[in-house]
Write a structure and sequence with these properties.
There is one protein chain. The protein is mainly α. The protein has 12 helices and 2 strands; from the N terminus they run ααααααααααββαα. A hairpin with a 2-residue loop joins strand 1 and strand 2.
């Protein structure tokens, strides 16, 4: 993550209001974390059922790690702000001087926690894309390169936090400034690839006369994906704009990146569980409606030899509707 310390300029927008921005950022982060905590608790039963079925181990571990890191980040951030706005008021440095001490243990820990959460979030997004595209390595090649580049930039930035006396060359600042745009681009790319794959299967199903797979329309799946990722994507977009403007108010959105990134996957699990509950008692055509396994598990059954993806799911549904469909589509090989 790029350093606010590099942006202290008398001509930067918002200069003189940093203490207010920092205080608003703390309370905004607390509010977002509270919402995330509530959603995580309510969705944990669904995560646990997926773990017991052996169908979402990667996401279960990843989301639990994100929860632990985000919780630790919230506690450290609370300690930093309480310390800055109590002891710092009677200190010559003031609250802002403490908040800008990037090599302090709590300030540095906050930066590390955000970086780790964003890395895990990007990895899970890439993994989901990998599963939806039938385990195609070529599809996730570019997102993976972007993730590795973002990790390298973050590591350089964290090193600068510990050694603020080091003056980096102007060319290096160009790469540091690409931190947030890379995260935003990676998120848009993976979400777009997943949405494109689902939309293709939706058109394929519509052409063959299949209106829905197992009671869940693929258009509804698109809504789940887009709406779940919207909060983090919009926040990152605003942060990119404010960062390029060197506006000091960017700290408001920067501080809450950890819970915002974590809430994406919790929202998706919550909405999938809601859809499962609504469809559990629905009967149609002599069979119950269920969620597609690739959405239900968010990953195929690991260790079970099963690798059902969208193509397989739609092909299977089309085969089951052969009597109603003039020309059923055969599964891809």
């Amino acid at each position: 993550m790029s350093s606010n310390g590099t942006l202290i300029n008398p001509n930067s927008p918002g200069v003189g209001q940093e203490e207010i921005y920092a205080l608003v950022a703390f309370w905004f982060n607390t509010l977002v974390y509270g919402a995330y905590l509530s959603l995580f608790i309510s969705s944990f039963s669904g995560l646990w059922r997926g773990w017991r079925r052996g169908t979402s181990k990667v996401f279960f571990v990843g989301m639990c790690l994100m929860f632990l890191l985000t919780t630790l980040d919230a506690l450290v951030t609370a300690h930093l702000n309480v310390y800055a706005y109590t002891w710092g008021l009677s200190n010559q440095r003031g609250p802002l001087g403490i908040l800008n001490m990037w090599n302090r243990w709590d300030r540095f820990t906050h930066s590390v926690m955000i970086s780790l959460v964003l890395w895990i979030a990007d990895f899970l997004a890439i993994y989901r894309c990998y599963i939806v595209w039938q385990k195609s390595w070529r599809i996730i090649l570019v997102p993976s390169v972007i993730l590795l580049l973002s990790m390298s930039i973050n590591i350089v930035n964290l090193h600068w936090f510990l050694h603020p006396e080091t003056w980096l060359r102007p060319t290096v600042w160009i790469f540091l400034d690409m931190c947030y745009p890379l995260h935003l681009g990676q998120n848009i790319l993976t979400t777009g690839l997943i949405a494109f794959k689902i939309w293709k299967q939706h058109l394929r199903s519509a052409q063959s006369g299949v209106r829905a797979y197992a009671g869940i329309r693929l258009v509804y799946v698109l809504r789940i994906i887009f709406e779940s990722a919207m909060i983090y994507t919009l926040q990152m977009l605003v942060l990119v704009i404010l960062f390029r403007l060197r506006h000091r108010g960017m700290v408001i959105f920067q501080t809450s990146l950890a819970p915002s990134a974590s809430i994406v996957f919790v929202l998706m699990v919550t909405r999938v569980e809601m859809a499962r509950t609504q469809d559990r008692d629905i009967q149609g055509g002599g069979r119950s409606y269920k969620l597609p396994s690739w959405l239900d598990a968010t990953s195929p059954s690991e260790g079970s030899g099963s690798s059902q993806t969208i193509d397989h799911a739609v092909a299977k549904e089309e085969a089951g509707n052969a009597n109603d469909t003039p020309q059923p589509i055969e599964p891809r090989t």
